[in-house]
Amino acid sequence: MRNIAHTYYPQSGRLVILGAGESGVGAAILGKDKGFDVFVSDMGVIADSYQAQLEEEGIVFESGQHTEELILNAAIVVKSPGIPERAPLIKKLRSLNIPVISEIEFAAQYTDAKLICITGSNGKSTTTMLTYYMLQKAGINVGLAGNIGKSFALQVARSPFDTYVLEISSFMLDDMYHFRADIAVILNITADHLDRYEYKMENYVNSKFRMIQNQRAEDYFIYCVDDEETVKALPRFQIQAQQLPMSQLQVLTVGAYVDENNNLKINIPNRDEFEMNIEELSLQGKHNVYNNMASGLIAKVQELRNQSMKESMGSYVNISHRLEHVALIGGVNYINDSKATNVNSVWYALESFSPNIVLLLGGVDKGNDYEMLRDLVRQKVKAIICIGKDTSRIHDAFEDEVDVIVNSSSMEDAVNMASHLASKGDTVLLSPACASFDWFKNYEERGDKFKEAVMAL
Fold first, then answer.
1. Ranges for the Mur ligase central domain (predicted)?
2. Looking at 71, 101, 131, which one is the last position of a domain?
3. Residue 283 pLDDT > 50, yes or no?
4. Is 169 annotated as a binding residue?
5. Does 412 map to a domain?
6. Residue 204: in which H helix or E strand, if any?
7. Distance CA 418, CA 64 (A)
8. Are residues 86 and 110 in the same domain?
9. How confident is the model at residue 95 (pLDDT cuts 50, 70, 90)?
10. Do both 296 and 431 map to the same domain?
11. Looking at residue 401, what is its pLDDT?
12. 332-336 and 427-430 as β-strands: parallel, antiparallel, unpaired?
């Protein structure tokens, strides 16, 4: 049990799980297998599939409520990342000195596997999936978990791997204390979810840097020296791990960089140099060069062969809803970037395409500052079609920057409008900058509806 010494958390007694999604149900099953008295509580309605799983395991649960007398007697609590620290129930648990931790923290106690942990405001899903793909192709016994894939706890309990690639959000990191990453990656840090961090950027940055807590001299820390917030924060932290920076703006003796001939180069002490032209990467665009650098550095640390790395970096197909090519219809390119739920993700998307973009923007606004998009919108966007309920701030931000800005009544309506506004050679881009919960269940449903509407043209 390499990550968390037994002394930190109770190893028996009552385990309460708050939230019965993928991570909660996985933690409940692991807890049951380790001999805890497990109780699962969810304020919302538990999905049928998860209810069936809990029933099959004989785990007691409640749905649609939190019964305090069944929760406040816990020895340890594992909570869903979605429950904020300010929730009254969490405050009560804290006041009683009951440990409240994340599923990742809980499960890490019970595995000796190598943990590769990736965070960042943008690009973490792509980098996590690419890394997983590369390691799997190289024959490593690797699992995929965290914000993506099957629950880490469930895999540790029932189908363990030698190595895990974990996509970690700041919300997860907030409830991680003694966990240790063998390889920690911070891709970038831009304003996101600030409502959870008292609207203070420093609090959000500190949350991301929890990724490197507990690292040792034999571990690795991968980060981007082109990222302003990351570089600004570095002096505040004592970094024990070996540092592997990456840059597209400067030549680095150790780490990853792009040379004057557009070759991605990776240099790590005691490993042979890696080189690949960025035009050969299957994922194109500046942001994807960073994602490839991070995955490439991980692969090198894991001593993958250069040929294996090149094959993977040249053949990987991106995840759904992240700059996903849907169709070319009448010479117009349709791109589904529904996973872009913040302004910075949209910046990356706009940066990836040539001018004459018809942009589908909007949804539940999380207090977005659209200022950083203004120049790119002016240079590249010919029309904006607003989707969802929060459209006034989009109009205010971009009315002077584009010739056409209109509201739509549905995704089908938005796609039809876009098809009439776009000409041959243009790109219709769904990259909303907002959450999806007004018109859709989640960003996946939003992206699927976009793809359906495109295919119906």
1. 118-297
2. 101
3. yes
4. no
5. yes
6. helix 201-209
7. 41
8. no
9. very high
10. no
11. 94
12. parallel
Q: Which helix (H) or strand (E) holds 61?
A: strand 60-63
Q: Specify the residue for token string 């989009």.
A: 394
Is 243 found in the same domain as 134? yes
State the Cα–Cα distance between residues 314 and 308, nearest whole angstrom.
10
**DSSP character at residue 265:** E
Number of independent structural domains in the chain: 3
Nearest C-alpha neighbor of 143 from the set 123, 122, 119, 116? 116
Question: Is 123 annotated as contributing to ligand binding?
Answer: yes
CATH of the domain at 110: 3.40.1190.10
Q: Does 120 belong to an annotated binding site?
A: yes
Confirm or deny that 159 is annotated as ligand binding: no
141 annotated ligand binder: no
**Across the strands, what pairs with 275?**
265
Amino acid at 308: S
Q: What are phi and psi of 395, to 5 degrees?
A: -60, -45
- Range name among 32-41, 125-134, 277-286 with the lowest pLDDT average: 277-286
Which parts of 220-321 fold into alpha helices (H)? 228-233, 286-301, 306-315
Residue 3 has pLDDT above 70, yes or no: no
Return the amino acid letter for 359. Answer: L
Is it the case that residue 84 has pLDDT exceeding 80?
A: yes
Q: What is the DSSP track for 79-115? A: E-TTS-TTSHHHHHHHHTT--EE-HHHHHHTT--SEE
Integer Cα distance of 124 and 174 in angstroms: 17
Q: Identify whether 7 is part of a domain.
A: no
User: Based on the domain organization, do 377 and 311 belong to the same domain?
Assistant: no
- Both 140 and 265 in one domain: the answer is yes
| Angle, alpha carbons 360-362-367 (nearest 5°) | 145
Give every CB contact of residue 116 below 8 A, 6+ residues apart in sequence: 131, 163, 164, 165, 166, 181, 182, 183, 185, 298
pLDDT-derived band at 202 (thresholds 50, 70, 90) equals confident
Sorted by sequence, the CB contacts under 8 Å of residue 446 that are 6+ apart come out as 338, 363, 411, 430, 432, 436, 439, 440
Boundary-marking domain end, from 101, 120, 141 = 101
Residues 246 and 124 in one domain: yes
Annotated ligand binding at 122? The verdict is yes
Do the domain assignments include residue 8?
A: no
- pTM recorded for the entire structure: 0.77
The domain of 432 spans 324-455
DSSP codes joined into one string, 347-399: HHHHHHS-S-EEEEE-SB--S--GGGGHHHHHHHEEEEEE-SS--HHHHHHHT
On whether the CB atoms of residues 169 and 81 are closer than 8 A, the answer is: yes
